[in-house]
């Protein structure tokens, strides 16, 4: 079938992207879903910093690639064979498929699925191969999702169904921002009652961590949620979303503020160093950001040893999406997790290059492309 999608043609185009237009929106061919796959009509797709990292070359992926790894939509067709899903059902797409029977999947989310990672790096679906092309030219899938398009064919193991009461924009941001930011706390650090929680880097992922931290503390009768970012507009928003204290990195260092659990969600070395330096004795730094593979940090091994501190890496919040997404939906339904507040603007697919500029400038939280 013919679809419309945003294809990244080349890596490392100069900013502003509204002028260099590295993403080209146009018509593509989408193959039929194979066994164990489904055709999804995309309703909403969020822009995440990891999309920008592919555009600017920090994360090298094969091109041309149809980008987008945070999306939700309705099932329009199922591949041959039995399925536990039905046509019309809304699904959250997740960017790390889980095959369910490799050594990675056996770790309960702590390490990525092995064939899932191989497929992602190759620009293929988990079942192998690609369903996207343009005038006979093969187009790569982005992390098994390729959500910046009117439709996608995805593997069953890349989606989690949700009920119809979960709006498309919320379903979309569940797939990356909430799974990653929430999982940093719920899966990787598990803060106890009274633990001071800090989040360094307030993009969509960091702000989701602030929301989840505030919700955990509400369950435990209160506690500190400390939000850190270089941009004053982000700090103001974090206060709105439940942060009890906000600081720029300079203020944080100057005042010697520390926390028991510190989530680094900025994806750069300075933020990581800030997070480790602000981890209290006995505390844990959880890093979920994705700096360039060449990045190296300077931290004090002695401070780790002498203070009994831990540093933990957490890809996709060490999530098991099929287990975790229903939990976030439950928290959202109870009113404790206002995920809708992560959506800062809605846009059309055609505006995607400008939206990448906004993302690079750190404006807003989640910009979400909506399809009608
Ligand atoms: Zn993401
Ligand atoms: Zn696996």
Polypeptide structure, described:
This protein is an alpha/beta fold and 372 residues long. The chain has two domains: 2-164 and 338-370, Alpha-Beta Complex (Quinone Oxidoreductase, Chain A, domain 1); 178-317, Rossmann fold. The protein has eleven helices and 19 strands. Strands 3, 5, 6, 10, 11, 18 and 19 form a seven-stranded mixed β-sheet that branches. It has a six-stranded mixed β-sheet with strand order 8-7-2-1-4-9, with no helix packed on it. Helix 4 packs across helix 5 (204-219). The chain is globular, with a radius of gyration of 20 Å. The site of one zinc ion has 9 residues, from helix 3.
Question: What would the keywords be for this entry?
Answer:
372 residues, 6-stranded mixed β-sheet, 7-stranded mixed β-sheet, Rossmann fold, Quinone Oxidoreductase, Chain A, domain 1, 19 strands, alpha/beta, binds zinc ion
């Amino acid at each position: 079938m013919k679809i419309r999608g945003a294809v990244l043609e080349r890596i490392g185009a100069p900013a502003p992207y509204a002028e260099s237009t590295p993403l080209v929106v146009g018509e593509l061919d989408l193959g039929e879903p194979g066994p164990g796959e489904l055709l999804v009509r995309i309703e909403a797709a969020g822009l995440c910093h990891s999309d920008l990292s592919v555009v600017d070359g920090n994360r090298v992926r094969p091109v041309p690639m149809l980008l987008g790894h945070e999306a939700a939509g309705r099932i329009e067709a199922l591949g041959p064979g039995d399925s536990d899903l039905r046509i019309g059902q809304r699904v959250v797409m997740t960017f790390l498929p889980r095959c369910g029977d490799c050594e990675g999947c056996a770790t309960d989310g702590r390490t990525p699925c092995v064939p899932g990672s191989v497929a992602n790096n190759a620009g293929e679906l988990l079942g192998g191969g690609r369903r996207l092309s343009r005038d006979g030219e093969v187009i790569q899938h982005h992390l098994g999702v390729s959500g910046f398009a009117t439709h996608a064919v995805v593997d069953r193991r890349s989606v989690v169904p949700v009920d119809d009461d979960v709006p498309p924009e919320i379903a979309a941001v569940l797939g990356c921002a909430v799974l990653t930011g929430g999982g940093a706390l719920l899966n990787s650090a598990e803060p106890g009652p009274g633990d001071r929680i800090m989040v360094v880097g307030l993009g969509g992922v960091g702000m989701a961590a602030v929301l989840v931290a505030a919700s955990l503390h509400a369950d435990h009768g209160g506690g500190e949620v400390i939000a850190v970012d270089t941009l004053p507009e982000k700090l103001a928003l974090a206060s709105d979303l439940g942060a009890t204290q906000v600081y720029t990195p300079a203020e944080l260092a100057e005042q010697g503020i520390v926390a028991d659990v510190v989530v680094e969600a900025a994806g750069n070395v300075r933020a990581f160093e800030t997070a480790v330096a602000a981890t209290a004795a006995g505390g844990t730094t959880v890093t979920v950001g994705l700096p360039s593979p060449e990045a190296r940090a300077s931290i004090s091994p002695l401070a780790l040893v002498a203070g009994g501190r831990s540093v933990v890496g957490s890809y996709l919040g060490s999530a098991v999406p099929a287990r975790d997404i229903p939990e976030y939906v439950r928290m959202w339904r109870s009113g404790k997790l206002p995920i809708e507040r992560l959506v800062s603007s809605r846009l059309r697919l055609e505006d995607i290059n400008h939206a990448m500029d906004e993302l690079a400038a750190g404006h807003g939280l989640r910009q979400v492309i909506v399809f009608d």
